[in-house]
Specification:
The complex is a heterodimer of chains A (111) and B (340).
Chain A: E1 14-15, H1 22-30, H2 42-46, H3 57-65, H4 69-74, H5 84-88, H6 95-109
Chain B: E1 2-8, H1 12-22, E2 28-32, E3 46-47, E4 52-53, H2 54-63, E5 69-72, E6 76-83, E7 86-91, E8 96-104, E9 108-110, E10 127-129, H3 130-138, E11 150-157, H4 173-187, E12 192-197, H5 207-216, E13 221-224, E14 227-232, E15 238-244, E16 249-255, E17 257-262, E18 264-266, H6 271-276, E19 304-306, H7 316-338
Parallel strand pairs in B: 1-2, 1-8, 2-5, 8-19, 10-17, 11-12, 11-17, 12-13
Antiparallel strand pairs in B: 3-4, 6-7, 7-8, 9-18, 14-15, 15-16
Helix pairs in contact in B: 1-7, 4-5
The chains are: A mainly alpha (111), B alpha/beta (340).
């Protein structure tokens, strides 16, 4: 095919009509606390890995809620499970449990 | 007709002020433009945070009016201050009222949501306001027999918006949206409910608990971002666009119903009264108190008092407490002018 020098960009939009809510529903069923996030950022600011890697727990659960699971997965890759985020969360979200569940989901379902 | 106090507005503020001033054996005249006392809460079903019936509150307020002379279905055509202790008002019916003091309990107006054209209120059948939803709750209609799958609440409609000349926060809508979202979820347990907000201002006692309950018990989802536009698809469903500001991305969702949280704006229909009395209004159109902390119910004109949400958005308990304090202030004033 002739290369005209144009390319199609994929949509950056979050479309809640056609998103993959499989993981979100699983996490909701396992640990109801995921619903309680108020996006304060305490988890991300206290994270020991965040200064050197892209780890961001707040964004992870937000993206999972929006069905962007692949991107969410990337955001917990550097997590060392130190548990500081669990300590600081003002809404008592069991962050470690959620991170472990996400890892388990990807081991079972995708790899 | 003659009286010590003329109270304009028969909502909760006017009724509570009237009943408390009559307790001091004063002659009170209460004028309400509608044919029934109660004001905005007449259209409301249940009240936040505990879900008390609005009709119970109105009933209690009506029952304690004492010897107040109530004039319904009339508004003030004009009012004039003759001298320091003497006001003359004319009602729309032509009747003349003479009194020694005036209390403005003229309240607020809900923002007419059709002014925010991009939300399509009045154009799309499935876009309704907070007031419409309460009316439906009152009639036990909900959102109809067919259970909705997805419902969205749009916060700050007509609030915090310079484009429609209302910069102020309406203060009550955040908690009202949470209350209504929970009520809908109780009615339709399988529905998914979304709230589009800019900030959630859960300042009152019990409000934050209700917010947490909405999230954890009812699974209501909160998306931070102001809705930019609402459109309708071929099947009559509504498409909402907003930015998910926490994800920094545009977002789209198709919903069965959208509830617009119409905000609180000043009752500009009374501008002629405030002009005739030379009262000071703020930039937001609400009446200015003499000072915002101690003399909240006094105005720049001696003998003219103001109470309730005529000075800005207030919750019902705030309105009732203020009405009681206004009654004391007015009584003190009347004692003072009597004793010279």
């Amino acid at each position: 095919m002739v290369d005209f020098g144009f390319k199609l960009s994929s949509s950056n939009r979050i479309d809640l009509d056609s998103c993959d809510s499989d993981l979100f529903l699983k996490l909701k069923a396992e640990s109801g606390t995921i619903k309680q996030c108020i996006a304060c950022g305490s988890c991300a600011s206290s994270c020991s890995a965040a200064n050197f890697t892209g780890v961001n727990f707040r964004k992870t659960i937000l993206l999972i809620e929006r069905g962007k699971n692949e991107e969410a997965k990337e955001l917990i890759k550097g997590c060392m499970l130190c548990g500081k985020c669990t300590l600081v969360c003002p809404r008592g979200i069991n962050t470690r449990e959620i991170i472990l569940s996400i890892n388990q989901y990807y081991k079972k379902e995708r790899f | 007709m003659e009286g010590d106090v003329l109270i304009i507005g028969g909502g909760p503020a006017g009724m509570e002020t009237a009943s408390r001033i009559s307790d001091f054996k004063r002659n009170v005249i209460l004028v309400e433009k509608e044919r029934e006392l109660g004001g905005h809460i007449l259209k409301w079903d249940r009240l936040f945070p505990d879900g008390i019936l609005a009709s119970d509150i109105t009933k209690d307020l009506k029952a304690s009016l004492g010897n107040t002379k109530v004039i319904l279905g009339s508004y003030l055509a004009s009012i004039e201050k003759r001298d320091d202790y003497h006001f003359v008002a004319q009602l729309s019916s032509g009747e003349i009222i003479r009194c020694s003091s005036v209390v403005l309990a003229t309240g607020f107006k809900l923002f007419p949501a059709q002014k925010k054209q991009e939300y399509g209120y009045g154009l799309y059948d499935r876009v309704i306001t907070n007031e419409d939803l309460e009316t439906r709750f009152k009639k036990s209609e909900g959102l109809g027999k067919e259970a909705p799958k997805r419902v969205g609440f749009v916060h700050c409609v007509g609030s915090r918006d310079e484009k429609i000349c209302n910069k102020q926060c309406s203060k009550l809508c955040c908690i009202t949206a949470v209350k209504q979202a929970i009520e809908l979820k109780q009615l339709y347990p399988d529905a998914e409910i979304f709230c589009f907000y800019m900030d959630l201002r859960m300042y009152g006692r019990g409000y934050e608990d209700l917010y947490l309950e909405a999230q954890s018990k009812y699974g209501i989802r909160f998306i931070r971002g102001r809705v930019s536009e609402i459109s309708q698809d071929q099947s009559g469903l509504v498409i909402v666009k907003a930015e998910d500001t926490l994800a920094s991305r545009p977002l789209k969702i198709t919903l069965d119903w959208v509830i617009l949280m119409a905000g609180i704006i000043s009752e500009r229909e009374n501008d002629y009264l405030t002009q005739q009395l030379s009262l000071q209004l703020g930039e937001d159109g609400f009446i200015n108190s003499l000072d915002p902390i101690i003399k909240t119910d006094q105005t720049n004109i001696p003998g003219v008092f103001v109470t309730g949400s005529a000075t800005g958005p207030k919750t019902l308990p705030e309105v009732l407490s203020e009405a009681r304090s206004t009654a004391l202030t007015v009584n003190e004033y009347l004692n003072k002018i009597k004793n010279g």
